[in-house]
Amino acid sequence: MVRSLVLFLVCAASSLAAQSRVDLLKQVADHYNNSDSFSVKGTASALMPGSSWRVTYDFDTEGAQPAFLPLDLRKPSIQVLSQMGNMKQALAVPGTTDPLPQKFTVQLLPLGQYNAIAMKLTDAQKIGAESVTVDGRSYSCEIIDATYDYSPAFKPNSAIEHKRFWIDPATLIVLRETRSMPDHPGSEWTGTVTSFSFNLPPSETILKALARFATLPKDRPEWVGRSLPDLALAQLSGPQIKLATLKGKPVLLDFWGSYCAPCNRTTLHAQELQQRYKSSALIVLTFTQDTAADARAWTGYNHVTLPVLLDPDGTAFKALDIQGVPVAILVGADGKIVHYWVGLDDLASMDSSIAEILSAHAAATSKSRE
């Protein structure tokens, strides 16, 4: 009985300790999110796998509340921008003679976004303590091992990630972090904060960047009038489809990715249009660079019944200059592009254009039969 009670108390204490570290990360997130603004600057470094070379880059992350931004740049909540640059390579161990690895590519991570430190968090444990000095001041940090579940709903337990953070509980400031390198499993980035600030006016850098994002086009008018490329792609289920054979009917091309949160809404809207105009001549096709397995899982989970064209090599994505998803392209019966939407924030615009082209197509078809 005593042994059982002791075991219960140990387990309960362990659970409370874990919960307290989860709460700590939530408090850190609140600290950054509730500040009028925050700025985090630092340097990230990682060893190049299989060599004695180290790669470094600088990161600069800023966040600003709506009230701290000009009226034309405001959004409902805090806006956060990370910039990375100044990448360098150097020998990690002086005196070694390893040649610099050729064709070595790395994905730079947007470190310093500590307002999001509690998003997708499932567990957090204290694994040590260390003093970290920034700008001549020493901070007594807890080293926290945090577990995150970034798995999409259609593919549970497929994207579990561990990160470590050096956090000063007294100030709720993060001063160091480590994260796995997405393109080099087993290696990791270490981001060291070199300066930080709170509640200062946003810099010109973030203001200019937000202004640039606010004016990004929502469509690609330069593509209007171009012919649809003559491509042939395999279907997820069904025979290969040659785009050239679609000439003679209006076609809506929907580009998506399973990693893209808005794509669920836009692809299902494309499916709704296909059902709405079932009796018309509209053809709706979807394109993805996902693997067949992921595409099948995603479409099954989201009840997508549209034809799915697989583009693992990005042939169609490159030919049509798809720089991100979601994207929708409307092609006329003559095989020429009528509209090219990016982001699809305004689905009503798509609906209006499709209704217009289908009406024109029906009129032309009726006239040709007279």
From TrEMBL:
<feature type="domain" description="Thioredoxin">
    <location>
        <begin position="222"/>
        <end position="363"/>
    </location>
</feature>
<dbReference type="InterPro" id="IPR000866">
    <property type="entry name" value="AhpC/TSA"/>
</dbReference>
<dbReference type="GO" id="GO:0016491">
    <property type="term" value="F:oxidoreductase activity"/>
</dbReference>
<dbReference type="Pfam" id="PF00578">
    <property type="entry name" value="AhpC-TSA"/>
</dbReference>
<protein>
    <submittedName>
        <fullName>TlpA family protein disulfide reductase</fullName>
    </submittedName>
</protein>
<dbReference type="InterPro" id="IPR013766">
    <property type="entry name" value="Thioredoxin_domain"/>
</dbReference>
<feature type="signal peptide">
    <location>
        <begin position="1"/>
        <end position="17"/>
    </location>
</feature>
<keyword id="KW-0732">Signal</keyword>
<dbReference type="InterPro" id="IPR050553">
    <property type="entry name" value="Thioredoxin_ResA/DsbE_sf"/>
</dbReference>
<dbReference type="GO" id="GO:0016209">
    <property type="term" value="F:antioxidant activity"/>
</dbReference>
<dbReference type="InterPro" id="IPR036249">
    <property type="entry name" value="Thioredoxin-like_sf"/>
</dbReference>
